[in-house]
């Protein structure tokens, strides 16, 4: 069974972001667990939580990139938009007709997506956000 482990090489050093990434990783691992059990009702709930949390995390991350003046904000937002479309699209299909979704393929997509996005995209804003820790402190409880 696939499992993604959190490792320090994934950390951005921005607590609010690292916490979100750990939660997302936990939800993805739950998709793997339930996929093995083949319990459609349980999987629907987890996919719903995952789709919601992905959305919440992306919004939070985009606000932080914006207030810190990250130069590649628009490109990063575009990557988020594409992932949101895939995750929410698959979730909607799964809700109406679970048999249409190849859960193994979806798991492989998720296993690859999060670590790759963190390393290739999120680590790109790391220095900008770390240089603006005071701004992040001011908003982190409200975003
Ligand atoms: Fe991101
Ligand atoms: Fe992220």
From TrEMBL:
<comment type="similarity">
    <text>Belongs to the hemerythrin family.</text>
</comment>
<keyword id="KW-0408">Iron</keyword>
<dbReference type="InterPro" id="IPR050669">
    <property type="entry name" value="Hemerythrin"/>
</dbReference>
<dbReference type="InterPro" id="IPR035938">
    <property type="entry name" value="Hemerythrin-like_sf"/>
</dbReference>
<dbReference type="InterPro" id="IPR012312">
    <property type="entry name" value="Hemerythrin-like"/>
</dbReference>
<dbReference type="GO" id="GO:0005344">
    <property type="term" value="F:oxygen carrier activity"/>
</dbReference>
<dbReference type="InterPro" id="IPR016131">
    <property type="entry name" value="Haemerythrin_Fe_BS"/>
</dbReference>
<feature type="domain" description="Hemerythrin-like">
    <location>
        <begin position="12"/>
        <end position="127"/>
    </location>
</feature>
<keyword id="KW-0813">Transport</keyword>
<keyword id="KW-0561">Oxygen transport</keyword>
<keyword id="KW-0479">Metal-binding</keyword>
<dbReference type="InterPro" id="IPR012827">
    <property type="entry name" value="Hemerythrin_metal-bd"/>
</dbReference>
<dbReference type="Pfam" id="PF01814">
    <property type="entry name" value="Hemerythrin"/>
</dbReference>
<protein>
    <submittedName>
        <fullName>Hemerythrin</fullName>
    </submittedName>
</protein>
<dbReference type="GO" id="GO:0046872">
    <property type="term" value="F:metal ion binding"/>
</dbReference>
């Amino acid at each position: 069974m696939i499992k993604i482990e959190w490792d320090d090489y994934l950390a951005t050093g921005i607590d609010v972001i690292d916490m979100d990434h750990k939660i997302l990783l936990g939800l993805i691992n739950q998709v793997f667990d339930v996929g093995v059990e083949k319990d459609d009702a349980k999987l629907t709930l987890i996919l719903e939580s995952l789709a919601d949390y992905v959305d919440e995390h992306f919004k939070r991350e985009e606000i932080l990139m914006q207030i810190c003046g990250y130069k590649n904000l628009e490109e990063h937002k575009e990557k988020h938009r594409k992932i949101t479309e895939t995750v929410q699209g698959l979730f909607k299909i799964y809700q109406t007709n679970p048999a249409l979704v190849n859960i193994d393929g979806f798991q492989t997509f998720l296993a690859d997506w999060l670590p790759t996005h963190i390393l290739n995209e999120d680590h790109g804003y790391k220095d900008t956000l770390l240089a603006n820790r005071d701004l992040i402190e001011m908003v982190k409880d409200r975003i």
